Amino acid sequence: MSSLTQNKFLPSYHHQVYTNRPLQHPSRVCCTTTTTTTSKSRPNAKQLVIEPGLQPPPPTSTVVNTTNRPMDNDPDLQSTWSHRAWVVAGCTTLVISLGESIKGAVDLHMWVEPIFAGWVGYILADLGSGVYHWAIDNYGDGSTPIVGSQIEAFQGHHKWPWTITRRQFANNMHALARAVTFTVLPIDIFCHDPIFQGFVGMFSGCIMFSQQFHAWAHGTKSRLPPLVVALQEAGVLVSRPQHAAHHRPPYNNNYCIVSGVWNEFLDKYKVFETMEMLLYFKLGVRPRSWSEPASEWMEEIKIPSQIQAQ
Questions:
Q1: Which of 7, 9, 16, 224 is the most buried (most CB within 10 A)?
Q2: Alpha-carbon distance 198 to 194, whole Å?
Q3: Element spanning 270, H or E
Q4: Which pLDDT score, from 0 to 100, does residue 153 have?
Q5: Buried b (16+ CB within 10 A) or exposed e, 85-123
Q6: Is 126 helix (H, G, I), strand (E, B) or coil?
Q7: Number of C-alpha atoms within 13 angstroms, CB side, residue 304?
Q8: How far apart are CA 58 and CA 297, in angstroms?
Q9: Do residues 196 and 117 make contact, with C-beta atoms less than 8 angstroms apart?
Q10: CA–CA separation, 156 vs 252, rounded Å?
């Protein structure tokens, strides 16, 4: 679930590869001349004969237009003070929620229920990330109300997935942090039930940090913190090989990006395909996954200068 609105590189940044095939047909040209002493034309005189040649056409050449290719130092990858403020606000609401759960558990001398509620929140957050990811990958476009920019951002992520590893932390997190702030803060104010707060704190925390889990899933093992690698290999966080499958054709599997625990079940029993059929027969809307992958989804590798900069 690449993210909420994060000014990702959108599919409007088309990287186009043009194959220049000169329409040249080599020919053998034979010319004959005749000497005339009058101004009369001679109908039988051969003036120009063009015979098709048999030489093979010259090899094709490829021209790559890199004008709109994202770069590591692009300002859209940098964090701003506004981004940092939203991340602080989101984390604050999460701390309050989890604090309420712990305080209530201590006061009421119960631990099993809040812990179990937190575990349920963690499991459902992975499912929620997959459903949301599937929905905006397959339906709507840039003009869709509220989530249009997010839909475009997901398409751009398919084109240049490596950019998420270059995006600064607050830049990567701020949109989800803003959503969590507006959702969880009222709950913190009006609800003090430790079980419910345990669920809300864990569910919202996993959703908010899912974008960072997603970034780690695109990282290389040697560059990730050892603890992150250990959690990925233990299945606590979505693993790199599992998420890599989502970025290969036909791009219609492994949508969940918190732990990835739901991916096998959802793909094995074709849950999303069933939902697509229901939507098609009810509303007549075809998902993008039914069509051949568009060029905007074809991953483009970094240019040599970017690879050397790593």
A1: 9
A2: 6
A3: none
A4: 72
A5: ebbebbbebbebbbebbbebbeeeeeeebbeebbeebbb
A6: helix
A7: 0
A8: 32
A9: yes
A10: 16
How many whole angstroms separate alpha carbon 278 and alpha carbon 237?
A: 31
Half-sphere exposure of 150 toward its Cβ, with a 13 Å CA cutoff? 22
Per-residue tokens: 167: 């995006």
Burial of 296 (0-12, 13-18, 19+ CB in 10 A): middle
| Nearest to 266, CA basis, from 275, 48, 258 | 275
SS3 of 62, please? strand
Cα–Cα distances (Å) from 272 to 100, 131, 156, 289, in that order, read: 36, 8, 22, 10
Residue type, 66: T
CB 275, CB 255: distance < 8 Å? no
CB 89 within 8 A of CB 204: no
For the packed helices 112-138 and 194-217, what is the interaxial angle rounded to 10 degrees? 50
Q: Mean of the pLDDT values across residues 55-83?
A: 60
46-55, pLDDT tens digit by residue?
A: 454 444 444 4
Helices 169-190 & 81-108 angle (0-180, nearest 10): 40
Extract long-range pairs of 242-251: CB within 8 Å, 24+ residues apart. 242/217, 243/214, 243/217, 243/218, 244/217, 247/158, 247/161, 247/299, 249/293, 250/289, 250/293, 251/137, 251/158, 251/289, 251/293, 251/297
pLDDT digits (tens, 9 = 90+) for 232-264: 999 999 999 999 999 888 889 999 999 999 999
E strand segments, 70-172: none
Q: Is 29 helix (H, G, I), strand (E, B) or coil?
A: strand
Tokens standing for residue 266? 């959802």
Residue 67, SS3 per DSSP: coil
CA-nearest of 263, 287, 264, 262 to 274 is 287
